[in-house]
Amino acid sequence: MAPKVLISDKLSEAAVNTFKDRGIDVDFQSNLGKDKEALLAAIGHYDGLAIRSTTKVTEKVIAAADRLRVIGRAGIGVDNVDIANATERGIIVMNTPFGNAITTAEHALAMMFSVARQIPAADASTQAGKWEKSRFMGTEVTGKTLGLVGCGNIGSIVADRALGLRMKVIAFDPFLTPERAKALGVEKVELEQLLPRADFITLHTPLTDKTRNIIDADALSKMKRGAFLINCARGGLADETAVRAALDSGTLGGAAFDVFVDEPTKDNVLFGGLNFVSTPHLGASTKEAQENVALQVAEQMCDYLLNGAVTNALNMPSISADEAPKLTPYVKLAEQLGSFAGQLTETAIEGIRLEYAGVVAEMNTNALTAAALTGLLTPLLQTVNMVSAPSLAKNRGIEVEEIKRAQKGAYETYIRLTVLTERQERSVAGTVFADGKPRIIQVKGINMEAELGPHMLYITNEDKPGFIGHLGTELGNHEVNIATFNLGRMTAGGDAICLVEIDEPVSREVMDRLAAVSHVKQVKSLAF
Ligand SMILES: NC(=O)C1=CN([C@@H]2O[C@H](COP(=O)(O)OP(=O)(O)OC[C@H]3O[C@@H](n4cnc5c(N)ncnc54)[C@H](O)[C@@H]3O)[C@@H](O)[C@H]2O)C=CC1
Ligand SMILES: O=C(O)CCC(=O)C(=O)O
């Protein structure tokens, strides 16, 4: 029986034709995604679901999707898909990371001109017969400074076009290497430097714990008076109430938002603000982009449903059926090592070195390196997987070196990952025990044996008496339950590392208390 696909959002007809041409049954119900009950009733009949942003693929939808094997997002953001649940159910989630980037960058620039020249208000006034020539004094963009917050796919296209407009472009993106910034023609700066320098600020990051409200009242107060703010990335990057207050006070000369905290937004605090321009999440809405993403998602879904080939999957390593059982624990180890190193690294990564020793050196190390890069890049990028991670790393100028060697030392086999930044090299190594579970065996040259849990504390300290007791007391006083506790030290009395698995993440206040424990040098909370 031919696989059956449901398209539940407004996708270009190009997708329907592709499915049909490749022999897949397709139902195109472009408004079904808006009707939760109807979607729940229908989803059980399909092997594939193709969506944009309207359909919310919740835990409930996934639970009702008995046959579903693949969810294809025609676009970039997958905030509307419960990926964890889909993964648990063995459903692949794929997206099209590049197909609408140019169009979205163009929308950000259109929004920039709209606020610079107050076009929507001038249009409304003119069509109301007022001819208010002196009311709408604009701002020329030539020679002005554009501040990018996030310089990935879309941000770098905006930079390219803005340079063509003879703007000076500065960018805050912790992941941007100096070489990549130079190649793009942008000046890499910190957020603190960007805020007071930029005449226009445009946001192009995913919405993460680090970027939520990155433009808050404090950031707004540091901006140039009368500067303009553009958000065509995700609602929640800017605090809407604070932006409204800044428009009211004149701190901001204007703001243009395509995306909102709640969508669709019908009654927003920003509406009616002075020189506030809005569009209903139209960033990706051009015929060209919609054809690109629809064609791409349909091809990818057909490849998977018909041949088992996987492209741009967010939750699926590209590993053949034969090698999967042997490789899977090492994939997990490599991803954990990457994630560990990525969460400890705060400056731009110039390169990574992966050493494979013993039996692991004979395995598919391409897949393992891709898994390590996935772990490394996940805290910073919107969508990264084992398929996309190597090219994303390459695009960002991260050099990847692989070394394979015979077994050496106490462990039969191990992987060591070293991150190279402008300032330092930091390495972390691990192995897989007979129980099939990965263990960390060395951090920064210090030996230890630790299993990583979902919530970990990474503490560097001096190996001095009293430290463990004091640390345990602080954790106990704050009702933090310790699951596992692992120690390692360079030499007696020298540098030491402590990896503690805790049941719940700890608050900022507890982190500050732990940092104040005697002999502690640094405390970080890590999530896996
Ligand atoms: N309005 C619309 O219709 C559309 C919106 N988008 C959204 O645009 C955003 C950007 O998309 P892409 O450029 O494709 O993503 P990307 O993953 O290529 O780039 C994101 C960049 O943000 C940077 N970044 C991550 N954390 C950061 C932080 N804390 N501070 C500063 N920079 C940080 C990353 O290093 C990366 O370079 C996403 O949120 C995406 O969902 C994408 C397409 C259409
Ligand atoms: O499909 C759309 O219109 C939204 C696009 C978007 O936000 C994305 O691709 O991240």
Jot down its keywords.
528 residues, binds 1,4-dihydronicotinamide adenine dinucleotide, Rossmann fold, binds 2-oxoglutaric acid, amino-acid biosynthesis, seven-stranded parallel sheet, oxidoreductase, 4 domains, 17 helices, 60s Ribosomal Protein L30, Chain: A, alpha/beta
Written description of the protein model:
The protein is α/β, with parallel strands linked by helices and 528 residues long. It has four domains: 4-99 and 288-316, Rossmann fold (3-Layer(aba) Sandwich); 101-278, Rossmann fold (3-Layer(aba) Sandwich); 320-444, 2-Layer Sandwich (60s Ribosomal Protein L30, Chain: A); 453-528, Alpha-Beta Plaits (2-Layer Sandwich). The chain contains 17 helices and 22 strands. The chain has helices at residues 13-21, 36-42, 59-64, 83-88, 101-116, 119-127, 153-164, 178-184, 191-197, 217-222, 240-249, 287-307, 324-344, 365-377, 389-395, 467-477, 508-515; strands at residues 4-7, 25-28, 48-51, 70-73, 92-95, 145-149, 168-172, 187-188, 200-203, 227-231, 252-257, 276-278, 349-357, 399-405, 414-421, 425-432, 438-443, 446-450, 455-462, 482-489, 495-502, 520-527. The strands form four sheets. The chain has a seven-stranded parallel beta sheet with strand order 8-7-6-9-10-11-12, with helices on both faces. Helix 5 packs across helix 7 and helix 13 runs parallel beside helix 14 (365-377). It is globular and about 85 Å long. 2-oxoglutaric acid binds at residues 52-53, 75-77, 100, 281, 283-285.
